[in-house]
Design goal:
By secondary structure, the chain is mainly beta. The protein has strands at residues 3-7, 10-12, 18-25, 34-39, 45-51, 58-60, 68-73, 78-83, 92-99, 108-109, 117-121. It contains no helices and 11 strands. The radius of gyration is 14 Å and the shape is globular.
Length: 123
């Protein structure tokens, strides 16, 4: 059974930083690409970033490029999202999601999404 637990959210002032963590179990973490997605109040889910199986490749949506960094520790079955220079537009619930395919990218397996962690950016 896949379990996904996101943590690290909170309230931060504009310009501040947070580091989100996502620890998983129930599958071989190092075999799957991972994604961070978010949902702002009143809006739909949007993709934030992805990372490949060995962590050497990452990609980010345009609005977070240069501010967010996704990484992973396969030994700990954990992926991270370092968020710097946060703005009110980054306010959202953040989720991590596993890929549906092993080794190569096959799209998001939404059923693996956890409960999320709330990020609020306000002065």
């Amino acid at each position: 059974q896949v379990q996904t637990v996101e943590s690290g959210g909170g309230l931060v002032q504009p310009g501040g930083s947070l580091r989100l963590s996502c620890t998983v179990s129930g599958f071989i973490f190092s075999d799957y690409w991972m994604y961070w997605v978010r949902q702002a109040p009143g809006k739909g889910l949007e993709w934030v970033s992805w990372i490949n199986v060995d962590g050497r490749e990452t990609k980010y949506r345009e609005s977070v490029k240069g501010r967010f960094t996704m990484s992973r520790d396969n030994a700990k079955s954990t992926t991270y999202l370092q968020m710097n220079m946060l703005t009110p537009e980054d306010r959202a619930v953040y989720y991590c999601v596993r890929d549906r395919s092993r080794i190569v990218s096959g799209g998001l397996e939404w059923s693996t999404r956890g409960q999320g962690t709330q990020v609020t950016v306000a002065s």
